UniProtKB/TrEMBL annotation:
Pfam families for the chain: Insc_C, INSC_LBD
GO CC annotation: apical cortex
Top-level taxon of the source organism: Eukaryota
Protein name as catalogued: INSC protein
Biological process (GO), any one: establishment of mitotic spindle orientation
Domain annotation Protein inscuteable homologue C-terminal: ranges: 61-513
SMART domains: ARM
Classification lineage: Eukaryota, Metazoa, Chordata, Craniata, Vertebrata
InterPro entries the record matches: ARM-like, ARM-type_fold, Armadillo, Insc_C, INSC_LBD, INSC_LBD_sf, Inscuteable
Ranges where the Protein inscuteable homologue LGN-binding domain occurs: 4-48
GO MF term list: cytoskeletal anchor activity
Length: 513
């Protein structure tokens, strides 16, 4: 969606391309000539979208209508009746155009949809007429009494609009899934899966609709047919999108999706791209941010096979993207079940991950380092892990990660850098219960770096979570090597309660460093 700042005539010219003839006079009569300050960012559809996918055009139109309805409510609150009326006219036009456009490319519409379309159009017309009467009324008391009716009408319009969009999207999902299930054509199936993926990118609500209509079942059916092998990466990518919602996860469990994913990951005849996309689905369904993974009982049955395949994928990854997907899946699994950490130890995963970190073409972003240090942090609870990390020169890597900084200033990258700093400090704190690890960390000057992170907010990007982790690591190392701290550092960062040291550091000015 482009936000275009244009005058009223130009705006009308752009809108005209998407309006039917019967609405042009309505636009001419009601569109304001003057531009108010807040109207300069009015959302319109650029003409460059005239050749875009019909469904995407529908979604853009729906988004505009939804935005306009919100703005009408805001203007109504301020009693801006002129603006309310002109925006109501615009919504009326957009609604009619959306319905006409959809009926043009839609092959079939149900009776329920036709009824909803009529209800919405009639209510929009009523809404427009109502706001016009309000515009012509100068009696303040009368306007107050009419305002509640306008609010009710606005609510009804929004309700009908929401129901219509829900019905339209459900019907489109059904049409796409019908194509996937019934077509034996590779081209038609590929096109339908591509459209389904685009639909899933529109948000969680669309994913729920697709899942409820059997999307996960249909896509796993594709993944079980050898004749569609070339479509596996695209199909798995779509599954990863849909499985961000609970309905998708339930469907995955019902069709033994975990077993299918395990088969794909362990089948060496599949391409790296297929393995990577299967890893992406595993990463999605085991995400620690989701609250509905408890029912994945079949995952435990296949976990050893899956973890083994993912470690191999990390070891043989030909690009940073493949490594990121595989390591992200492993990182999530270590949260999902502690047994995974023991399996990783048996598979010599620490050595494999540490070696990958030395290849800047493979571990090439803070996001990848975040996954690696997450795995190390979760594995560090095991006593055997310490010797593995020392042998792989892992303490040096953890020290380097304490210096992780964003070079682009991108907020997402900066957040990833914070996580890398925090988790490397957590890993050091856990591993330093082993005297050999603590000694290696002291020799690599970890203590001065931890002190710097505690005392300098800019070094940790003002992150409180990094500060807490660094204080914990510093206190663990101070027990093992008390001579490594100056008295002022000991008195302020180690001796007090953790919360007192935390408050001291969060209030510290840069000039104190």
């Amino acid at each position: 969606m482009h936000l275009i700042q244009v005058d009223s005539v130009q705006r009308w010219m752009e809108d005209l391309k998407l309006m039917t003839d019967c609405e042009c006079m309505c636009i001419l009569q009601s569109k304001p000539i003057s531009i108010e300050k807040e109207e300069q960012n009015e959302l319109i559809l650029s003409s460059q979208y005239s050749t875009c996918d019909n469904l995407q055009l529908l979604l853009k139109r729906a988004w505009i209508i939804s935005t306009e309805l919100t703005r009408i409510a805001q203007k109504l609150e301020k009693n801006r009746w002129q603006r309310v009326h002109s925006m109501t006219v615009r919504v009326n036009c957009h609604v009619r155009s959306m319905i006409n456009e959809y009926n043009t490319f839609s092959r079939s519409s149900s009776e329920e949809m036709h009824q909803l379309e009529k209800l919405l159009v009639d209510k929009c017309s009523e809404f427009t007429a109502f706001t016009e009467r309000c515009l012509q009324t100068e009696d303040e008391e009368m306007l107050k009494s009419m305002k509640s009716c306008v609010n009710e009408t606005l609510t009804t319009v929004a309700q009908y609009f929401g129901q219509l969009i829900e019905l339209v999207l459900t019907q489109e999902a059904q049409n796409l899934l019908r194509q996937i299930e019934l077509s034996g054509s590779l081209y038609i199936t590929e096109s339908a899966i591509g459209s389904l993926f685009s639909l899933a990118q529109e948000g969680a609500h669309l994913c729920r609709i697709i899942a409820k209509e059997g999307g996960v079942v249909a896509l796993f059916k594709i993944c079980r047919q050898d004749c569609f092998r070339c479509l596996y990466p695209q199909t798995l990518r779509t599954l990863a999108s849909i499985c961000c919602v609970e309905e998708g996860m339930h469907q995955l469990e019902k069709v033994d999706g975990i077993l299918c994913l395990a088969d794909i990951l362990t089948d060496t005849s599949h391409s790296e791209a297929t393995h990577a996309e299967a890893a992406a689905v595993i990463a999605q369904i085991t995400s620690p941010h989701l609250t509905f993974t408890q029912h994945l009982s079949s995952f435990l049955e296949n976990m050893e096979e899956i973890v083994t395949a993912l470690v191999k994928l990390c070891q043989e990854a030909s690009s940073g993207e493949v490594f990121l997907l595989a390591s992200a899946a492993l990182a999530n699994i270590t949260f999902f079940d502690t047994m995974a950490c023991e399996i990783l130890l048996q598979l010599n995963a620490v050595k494999i991950l540490l070696e990958a970190c030395s290849d800047k073409h493979i571990v090439d972003t803070p996001y990848s380092r975040d996954q690696v240090v997450t795995i190390l942090a979760n594995m560090s609870v095991l006593d055997q892990c310490a010797s593995e990390i020392i042998q792989g020169n892992g303490i040096q890597l953890l020290m380097e990660m304490l210096f992780e900084r964003s070079s682009s200033g991108n907020p997402a990258e900066a957040a990833a850098c914070e996580r890398v700093q925090q988790k490397s400090a957590v890993t050091l704190a856990r591993l330093s219960r082993d005297p050999e690890v603590a000694e290696a960390a002291v020799k690599l000057s970890c203590i001065p770096r931890l002190i710097k992170l505690c005392r300098s907010p800019t070094e940790r990007n003002n992150s409180d979570s990094v500060l807490v982790a660094c204080l914990a690591a510093l206190r663990r190392l101070a027990v093992m090597s008390p001579d490594g701290l100056e008295d002022s550092d000991f008195q302020q960062l180690v001796k007090p309660r953790l919360v007192d040291s935390f408050l001291l550091c969060t209030n510290m000015e840069e000039s104190f460093v």
